[in-house]
User: Fold this.
Amino acid sequence: MNSVRASNVSRRPRRVSRPRPVQPERNPQERDEDVPADMVAEESGPGAQNSPYQLRRKSLPKRTVCPTKTNMEGASTSTTENFGHRPKRPRVSGKCQDLPAAPAEQYLQEKLPDEVVLKIFSYLLEQDLCRAACVCKRFSELANDPILWKRLYMEVFEYTRPMMHPEAGKFYQINPEEYEQPNPWKESFQQLYKGAHVKPGFAEHFYSNPARYKGRDNMFYYDTIEDALGGGQEPHFDGLIFVHSGIYTDEWIYIESPITMIGAAPGKVAEKVIIENTRDSTFVFMEGSEDAYVGYMTIRFNPDDKSAQHHNAHHCLEITVNCSPIIDHCIIRSTCTVGSAVCVSGQGACPTIKHCNISDCENVGLYITDHAQGIYEDNEISNNALAGIWVKNHGNPIIRRNHIHHGRDVGVFTFDHGMGYFESCNIHRNRIAGFEVKAYANPTVVRCEIHHGQTGGIYVHEKGRGQFIENKIYANNFAGVWITSNSDPTIRGNAIFNGNQGGVYIFGDGRGLIEGNDIYGNALAGIQIRTNSCPIVRHNKIHDGQHGGIYVHEKGQGVIEENEVYSNTLAGVWVTTGSTPVLRRNRIHSGKQVGVYFYDNGHGVLEDNDIYNHMYSGVQIRTGSNPKIRRNKIWGGQNGGILVYNSGLGFIEDNEIFDNAMAGVWIKTDSNPTLRRNKIHDGRDGGICIFNGGRGLLEENDIFRNAQAGVLISTNSHPVLRKNRIFDGFAAGIEITNHATATLEGNQIFNNRFGGLFLASGVNVTMKDNKIMNNQDAIEKAVSRGVTPVTQQTETPSV
Assistant:
């Protein structure tokens, strides 16, 4: 469609007449001759006080004039007089007399009711209205009436709320009632005045009625956007284009200059200004379009053929190398099944896209690739067939406060070295993960909410990286964070909670730094490590889970240090099936079952931990597990301190085990651990209890102040006790019963209340170099229990 160009209509400048000089005062008869009789009657008649036009009256101070001067001398214009400037006094002596304003001028400026003046002003255009405001103070006040300017404003721009334009690239609408200035309509008019208008059908009317629109020399009207873009050579055109209500189809909009294009319509502006293309990208920004602006419109790509055959490179918005436009308050839709709605590609592509709605597209919403950057803020990105956002090939955007939700695929997908900084985004209810990182991608995600995903929250795989800091990750159907296949992200300072499965799931050779997170209320383990994965897990709080705290299995590894693991339904830490983690300086407490549970060949190192107040044992070792347990404090268990059973092994060294409700260490059912240099004391039951075929090497331990026997050996068990000190017990030092045997070498057994050594009949004990001394005589109590007490012995007895 060809536009109607402005014709070279000759325009004469409008002349503004100067105010008439003040006339000398005349007598009443002279006045009645000059002023119409009806005005005189109204001003001076008996009904003057009740006249319908007596709405506003102002009286001016009387002026004086010297009789020796002419009428022009000493007179001033009404404008000057209205602003209160006093006239010069003549340097002539003589009596002066009052001199009123001319009656017609005085009536127009002072006596004519406000409603009548406003009615007259309503027929003026903006420039004439501004000129009228220069006449006098009263006219200035009336000519600035917001209702007058609202009518003019809506006639030109159509907005039902003022559109403020305080600086280049910045537009926003306001509520007039809440604006700090008295007349936002006029202020906005001044800011938007110089511009071209695309208003189909209006251009011909505008240019064919020059008298009607006299004074609007700075406005240009076109029928198409293409014509408006081509009219950039017009004088007074400063690059501002208003696109008025309507649907504009198949226009070729290639922008390579810093123009500003904004929708102009009543109500919800963007919904009423629609620009669409069915053949090519709707908007293309090219080099030279730095600082261009497009805002408040709907941009659609709606090809007739939805297939990939002809449209695989076409988009609603295409932003290419070395340009940085601003896209603001736009609605962006694409029905093409390939490509993306918005494509930002190439070195130097750095747009600002803000307050836009990129939704319901049959492809990717926002695609940033090939070293492109840009700022993307406060956008709504939803219900897209593929990812809401793709970042690829060293793309590095800054994405803040976006709402990314209800996608039919992943929410945000960074891959193939994609990067980006994502801050304060709300990402939820996407069909796949809320945020996916793959193939050396390395985004930074800060203070986002990632929740209610139909699968997981964050999925990092195939050597993905990334920093996820201070996010809230919750209520996802699968794990809050998945890390797999040699990926190595940093997960720091997040709250990961209320997941329908686990909190953090690391598998398939995954790595990562899991640090300072609050992980709680998840249906499965707070952190799960499996299949050769080896993360660093430290300074986390893992608590109140419906399952265990940390679950390491299937040859999982990792360094787990300085965490607080508490109040979980199952074990605080599970280690199983060939796993070998290192657990160091953790506080594992207040669990509803076991503190640390090694089973089915679970191995690893457990050192320098505080393990306390569990409903079951502090540590359990079973079924071939062989951990190294060193320098821990294990106390307050409602069962025992350490329980080794069902062929469990382990090296238990330099621990302090105390104040447990049952034995400090239990060894049973063919288990064979090594206990060295432990302090096992103040138990509410025995120190060490070995029974049901238990074995083990007990060496250089201090076992003291326990309520029952320091060491109880029973039912076919056969441990070796070497160089232990067993003393100050409230029962026997060592008690051996029920066909058990033992080897006792170099032990010191003293100060025990029920004797140093109690041996049941038929028990075979090998003893060498033991010191049994200062134990209280407890023969009566021993007989009553069917055992033989040994209170003082330094040699092997013949039993």
User: Anything to note?
Assistant: The two ends are 118 Å apart (CA to CA).
